[in-house]
Design goal:
mainly alpha, 4 helices, elongated
Length: about 150
Amino acid sequence: MKTARILLALPGLAALAYGIVLFLDYAAPAWPDSFTTLLWIGGGPIVNDAVFAPVAGVVGLLLARVLPQPWRGPVQVGALLTAVLGFVAFPLLWRAYGVPPKPGLHDGNTWLGLLATLAVVWSAVLVASVVRIVRVRRRAAREIRPRARS
């Protein structure tokens, strides 16, 4: 079992080492200017682990305790997708051209795109919750009705 873990870890460590080599090739020639890149690369996981993950965990626990059973799963998935979409959109929402430009990336309205995507996500949450409520009520109605005798 220990050997399997080591064999699974080796490709990840090799990819990490290669990423470090690529970053050093990029950062060494422009060291004072590349310090902000190093902060960005290191800051993302730190902000995620210190802010986003605990907030998402607390919100998930609160939703699990407050919401009725048919609503729990869909609303928790919707909340998770909202957090992920917000985290991904953050660089473009924080400042214009927060990431290197790619064709088509900066052509649209980031706020409008995020809000439209969240509208689709929460519409799906609403539909999934209503479907679950209808199923629960049908199941309860079947159990209450006396069965016809043959």
